[in-house]
Design brief:
The protein is of the alpha/beta class. 37% of the residues lie in helices and 18% in strands. It is globular, with a radius of gyration of 21 Å.
Length: 384
């Protein structure tokens, strides 16, 4: 007898909340390889997937893991993998394949201190540019950054919905703090969740082409492998039939669509938390764990009379370019704390149009001192 998905209130670790969210979203295949600090996701999925009629496979490496979830998705199953920076590095070629083949799936990165082996059991946020530009070529991407176990659950659901809606691998860029943090998590019954399921074609097999985009759509309808539809899918530039087409015209059309299906839908995709922005002199732009740890520094700066706004990037990619441009019209500057040596600050600076943008980096393995946050805000507020 299959066990139903959990629901109710739990005192739950973030990584476990992520796994339970995947099950609630309908994930029924997990392919992965153990790596700290993400291993709890694989362990939970190995235990829970058989209870709900799903499958868990531990592969020989992350390359095979990523390939497996692409195959599972094409077989009609919602799929996911989870890893950390070194494992994501190995997955990137197949992530690019998934983007080119337009394959819905979810990739969770529980970030740790890096580069290389770095700090396997500690934390960082240094894979943010990897999520955006890690695979070769030009493409659109979606990456979400939770700040709590509850949001880890909620955003994993969102990631599966975006994957199905826009047909691509979607990142959940967590980190070791959120992954190993234990807090109250409310899991609604499945029928109370907003779940987007795959849109399958209603065309007859002879009339179906796997990459035909109907009017008003950004992606094509799916056909499940084994249901009698003849189709071809490849990492090569391809036409509407999925067949390789090496022409310049085909390549221009395809690459632009892979970018535009994200770029032209930013209002639907971008999620932000905004506080005190209307009259702010300085805006702190942050994401993930750092959005929690910088709050005492913001409060200290406010006590000193500085008007400080708070902008949290729940969706980091696509980047909220227009929001930063709008804020830059009336603020003195931005402060960007992040547990890396300065990645997202480059995007803020690019969009700020010359408005003072101060990086507040941290290499990982620790968190920002709130006094340093307050000092950075003061420096921007009183800069001449």
């Amino acid at each position: 007898m299959k066990q139903s998905n959990l629901h109710g209130e739990f005192f739950m670790q973030g990584n476990i909340a992520c796994a339970e969210a995947a099950l609630s979203a309908g994930c029924r295949f997990f392919g992965g390889y153990p790596i700290t600090p993400a291993s709890e996701i694989a362990e939970r999925m190995a235990f829970r997937l058989p209870q709900v009629g799903g499958s868990f496979v531990q592969f020989e490496d992350e390359i095979a893991s990523m390939a497996s979830i692409l195959g599972a998705s094409w077989a009609g199953v919602k799929s996911m993998t989870a890893s950390s920076g070194p494992g994501i590095s190995l997955m990137l070629e197949n992530i690019g394949l998934g983007i080119m083949m337009e394959t819905p799936c979810v990739v969770v990165n529980v970030q740790r201190g890096s580069p290389s082996t770095g700090l396997p059991t500690s934390w960082g946020q240094s894979d943010m540019m990897q999520a955006r530009f890690g695979s070769h070529g030009d493409y659109g991407v979606i990456a979400l950054a939770p700040k709590s176990p509850q949001e880890y659950f909620d955003l994993t659901i969102v990631a599966f919905n975006y994957a199905e809606k826009y047909r691509l691998p979607v990142f959940v860029t967590s980190d070791a703090i959120v992954g190993h943090m234990t807090e109250k998590v409310y899991i609604p019954p499945v029928d109370e969740l907003e779940i987007i399921n795959r849109k399958y074609t209603n065309k007859k097999p002879g009339d179906y082409q796997p990459y035909t985009i109907e009017p008003g759509q950004w992606v094509s309808d799916f056909a499940k492998a084994g249901d009698g539809y003849l189709y071809h899918s490849t990492g090569l530039t391809h036409d509407e039939r999925g067949y390789p087409d090496m022409s310049e015209a085909c390549h221009i059309q395809l690459v632009n669509r892979l970018i535009d299906k994200i770029k032209m839908n930013v209002d639907d995709i971008i999620l932000l938390e905004e506080r005190d922005l209307d009259d702010a002199d300085v805006v702190v732009v942050t994401f993930g764990t750092t959005a929690r740890t910088v709050v005492p520094g913001i409060n200290l700066a406010k006590k000193k009379g500085i008007k400080v706004g708070f902008l949290r990037l729940i969706t980091v990619w696509p980047f909220p370019e227009q929001k930063i441009r709008d804020l830059a019209k009336h603020v003195k500057g931005f402060v960007v704390p992040e547990i890396n040596m300065g990645q997202i600050v480059l995007e803020v600076e690019r969009c700020a149009g010359g408005v003072l943008t101060k990086s507040l980096p941290h290499p990982g393995g620790g968190i920002h001192d709130f006094k340093d946050v307050a000092k950075a805000i003061e420096e921007v507020a009183y800069a001449k």
